[in-house]
Amino acid sequence: MTASFKPEEKLQDIIQAYGKTMQETDGASFYDVKILPYPKDEILKALLAAIKLSDDVEVQEHLKAGLISLSHFRENIGDEPVKPFDKDLVNETAETLAESLKDDEWKANFEKYNDLLAKANTETAFYMESANKLNKENSPHDEFIGAWKNGKIKIDVDRSKALRAANSDSLPKRYRAAHVFWSTVWLLTIPLGIGLVFYKWWVGLLILFVASPVIANATKTSAMQFMIDYALESEDFYNHAINEGIIRVSEKL
């Protein structure tokens, strides 16, 4: 006699295997889909099905975290993950950091990472919208996602509050890693510029009055964009951001 197939057991097998793979990643880097234990679409369907079957809010949130991580597994990454930056770089001297910033391969990698992050954020927003529709009617967060996708609203971000949030545990690793890196680069340009004034004055002035302000502005702008991206991903953060005045949503005229 053939044993009867139980869909719940198959879901459990997929999710447990995926959970093991998640534990082997750092939560910020991008990995090739080939390291997943099942096809990405199959894992997505399993997570969504499990969210629908579960009545436990805490379990649902863990499964949604799995959805967010799933967007960090992508095609054509290769054997080595794409990392936001070399973490050891943060502890290097200003001179070493300046040399690293000149490296074309290093800059190309960081540009690739930012491109992957933008695509992952779009994918995650779709995943979360799908998950949020499973067990309830449209919530304010669902309506927020739909209105943003349809271009019906604009989102204003309070820059100072965004910077504070970016430096806190409010954001997941993948956002904090990028923000910490650029904040470190910005801060290190100041002593670097001052030091070079006594060596090559024009290079020092260029760093202090051109490079440093540009990096500072880029750091602040990216922190503000992170607020929007994560508000689209996370209903909890959306509510937090609204209540704390980090973001303000209004209809487009």
Major beta sheet summary: 2 strands, parallel
Binned, the helix content reads 55-70%
Distance between the termini: 66 Å
Q: What series of H and E elements makes up the topology?
A: HEHHEHHHEHHHHE
Mean pLDDT: 79
Would you identify the regions where 5 or more consecutive residues have pLDDT less than 50? 1-6
User: Structural class of the secondary elements?
Assistant: mainly alpha
Mind telling me the C-alpha Rg?
21 Å
Question: Can you walk through the features of this model?
Answer:
The protein is built from ten helices and four strands. The protein is mainly alpha-helical and 253 residues long. It folds into two domains: 1-82, no CATH class; 85-253, no CATH class. The protein has a two-stranded parallel ribbon with strand order 1-2. It has a two-stranded antiparallel sheet with strand order 3-4. It is globular and about 70 Å long. The N and C termini lie far apart (66 Å). 28% of the residues are buried. Residues 1-6 have low confidence and may be disordered.
Quick structural gist:
Helix content is 66%, strand content 6%.
Blueprint (SSEs and pairs):
Elements: H1 7-23, E1 31-32, H2 40-53, H3 57-70, E2 73-74, H4 94-101, H5 104-132, H6 140-149, E3 153-157, H7 159-166, H8 173-197, H9 201-233, H10 235-243, E4 247-251
Parallel strand pairs: 1-2
Antiparallel strand pairs: 3-4
Helix pairs in contact: 1-2, 2-3, 3-5, 4-8, 5-9, 7-9, 8-9, 9-10
